[in-house]
Write a structure and sequence with these properties.
- The chain is 39% helix and 13% strand.
- By secondary structure, it is of the alpha/beta class.
- It has two domains: 145 residues, Aspartate Aminotransferase, domain 1, CATH 3.90.1150.10; 231 residues, 3-Layer(aba) Sandwich (Aspartate Aminotransferase, domain 2), CATH 3.40.640.10.
- Strand 5, helix 7 and strand 6 form a beta-alpha-beta unit.
- Helix 4 crosses helix 5 and helix 11 packs across helix 12.
Length: 412
């Protein structure tokens, strides 16, 4: 099996973002090919110093005084920064706290409360398990009904899919911007507009789009959104999620987990819950200040590069991966399960083959680390800031070599 080795080297040589690979731990380690940045991004090198500084200077010397010296406002300040750089959101609408699952729960319950005369939730069966499980749990506890969308894997959720299930009793639509398996990009503006025309509101899961392509939540009229920060935002394993609520909804929003950090005066220790006037009302307990430090470093890098440049390289990486698929994997019976059209393709592609469930361990053993998604999919997640074209080539060549070797062993 051969593929023009100079192609990847040439692409790396002219890549305007190539130098940013040096900003990440072990990105230059040639023994590892890492194509799982859409599950867990590499750590920025500067995180170590930032964490040390925080521990020794802020936490270590200021101690409890830190809450009066910046910690208390950190979820809102980092949220505003993320909103500006990544989400297309004006200040006062985004916080960083909790997990995506908890944020989804808060937002879906708030969306239901915003439409008290309606009781149906729309979601697609191909959505990420957490989204489906949270919706099912909320339906069980509130008596709401779930309307399921069955999507075409080749297209993902479309405006027509959503319009077909919207009705006078629809309260909220819950969808992912990018399909976690195929990488298909849903049309947020059109689907949001269709949902509003039916009198409902929408909750968007941005886990696979935040940090890899431009978002314009304010301009698109999005009601509620959330997403994780450990994928393309490189916040680290278990880093806190972000939560966005459109400004017009905040004054009347009812979130279901009231806590002392989300009230008008947290240190009054009042007898009754009085939600804060702004987005702070969506904070419940004490937010994970220490865990926000890596995200702050990553946002500094994104500010230097610009989200448009990140998207441009993302398209180039996935285009190159598809070219290599055509050259190497297609003839081996591998199926491309992601869109070929860049305008509807996110930052990853998925390829399928019946042998992939047992092949993935062999790839990991040789230092090639993609992701696996049942039943037979290898997902190639290319993080534009830290992934090289050479890594993409090496990964797809390795998949082809392992598949040929397994087929030959099976024929003995």
């Amino acid at each position: 099996m051969t593929v023009a080795l100079h192609d990847a080297a040439t692409l790396d040589a002219v890549d305007p973002l190539a130098a940013y690979r040096d900003a990440f731990v072990a990105a230059d380690d040639e023994s590892i090919v890492y194509l799982d940045g859409n599950s867990l991004g590499r750590p920025p090198l500067a995180v170590a110093d930032r964490m040390t500084q925080f521990i020794t200077e802020s936490w270590g010397t200021r101690l409890i005084r830190g809450w009066d010296e910046g910690w208390f406002e950190a979820p809102l300040e980092i949220g505003d920064r993320l909103g500006h750089l990544v989400l297309g959101a004006a200040p006062g609408q985004t916080i960083v706290a909790d997990s995506t699952t908890v944020s989804l729960y808060k937002l879906i319950r708030a969306a239901l409360a915003a439409r008290p005369d309606r009781s149906r939730i729309v979601i697609d069966r191909a959505n990420f398990p957490t989204d489906r499980y949270v919706v099912q749990g909320i339906a069980a506890e509130t008596g709401a009904q779930v309307d399921w969308i069955d999507t075409d894997p080749a297209t993902g959720v479309t405006v027509a899919d959503v319009a077909a299930v919207l009705g006078p009793d629809t309260a909220v639509v819950v969808l992912s911007h990018i399909a976690y398996r195929s990488g298909y990009i849903a049309d947020i503006p059109a689907i949001t507009a269709a949902t509003h025309a039916a009198g409902a509101v929408v909750v968007w899961d941005l886990c696979h789009s935040a940090g890899v392509l431009p978002l314009e939540l304010d301009a698109w009229g999005v009601d509620f959104a959330t997403g994780c920060t450990y994928k393309y935002l490189n916040g680290g394993p278990g880093s806190p999620a972000f939560l966005y609520v459109r400004a017009e909804h905040i004054p009347t929003a009812v979130q279901p987990i009231p806590g002392w950090m989300g009230v008008k005066d947290s240190f009054l220790m009042g007898p009754d819950y009085q939600p804060a006037d702004g987005i702070r009302r969506f904070i419940s307990g004490t937010p994970p200040i220490l865990a926000m430090m890596p995200l702050s470093v990553s946002l500094e890098i994104i500010e230097q590069v610009g989200i448009d440049a990140i998207r441009e390289k993302s398209i180039a990486l996935t285009d190159y991966a598809i070219e290599l698929y055509d050259q190497i994997l297609a003839a081996l019976g591998v199926t491309l399960s992601s869109p070929r059209e860049a305008d509807v393709r996110g930052g990853h592609i998925t390829v399928d083959h019946p042998e992939f469930p047992v092949l993935i361990s062999s790839l990991w053993e040789r230092g090639v680390i993609p992701d696996f998604r049942p039943p037979t999919g290898i997902r190639l997640g290319m993080s534009p800031l830290s992934t090289s074209f050479t890594e993409v080539r090496r990964a797809i060549v390795a998949i082809g070599e392992e598949l040929i070797a397994r087929t030959e062993r099976s024929n003995l």
